[in-house]
Design a protein that fits this description.
By secondary structure, this protein is α+β, with helices and mostly antiparallel strands. The protein has one domain (about 5-155). The protein has helices spanning about 25-45, 60-75, 90-100, 105-115, 145-155, and strands spanning about 5-10, 15-20, 55, 120. The strands form 2 sheets. Strands 1-2 form a two-stranded antiparallel ribbon. A two-stranded antiparallel ribbon has the order 3-4. It is flat, with a radius of gyration of 19 Å. The two termini are about 35 Å apart.
């Protein structure tokens, strides 16, 4: 997602808000952090350690149906969302790709986020829908997130 950047005048009053896009270095760091989080989860699973995974379940059929109605209403192709079985992360990426650069991009992006379940912690590795990963945990920020500290303790025991 795009963060906002604020421009302040000499009195500290906000005079402009514009999108702040991450640079190549930030994108590389994000990729490496996700890779480290995934590696920690895979290691724990392989070693059958008691563990706390970060999970993100597939969206509910009701929420997907609401998304399909919106996608159809704005004239995009909802066929990827109508397949039998569960919707896949690639289906969401397809819809985002269709909406990219169009007037409906923001509303589609917002509705995709609303369609998804909230990520949570669990002892069972059921996967992370939003990242399209089978195993995932929070490992890379032990100073600011306690679950990361717990993961470090489990792995170093």
């Amino acid at each position: 997602s795009t963060e906002s950047e604020f421009t302040l005048d000499e009195n500290g009053v906000c005079i402009d808000v514009h999108p702040r896009h991450s640079g190549e270095a930030e994108q590389m760091i994000e990729y490496l952090m996700i890779t480290a989080n995934r590696a920690a989860a895979m290691l724990a699973k392989k070693a059958k350690l008691p563990f706390v995974y970060r999970i993100h379940e597939s969206p509910s059929p009701d929420r997907v149906q609401t998304l399909i109605q919106l996608v159809d209403a704005v004239g995009l192709n909802s066929k990827p969302l109508k397949k039998k079985g569960k919707v896949e992360p690639a289906d969401f990426a397809d819809i985002l790709g269709q909406a990219a650069g169009t007037p409906v991009q923001k509303v589609i992006s917002h509705q995709l986020l609303r369609t998804m379940a909230k990520a949570r912690y669990d002892v069972n590795p059921v996967g992370h829908f939003g990242l399209a990963l089978e195993d995932y945990c929070h490992f890379t920020s032990p100073i600011r997130r306690y679950p990361d500290t717990a993961i470090h303790r489990i792995l170093s025991a």
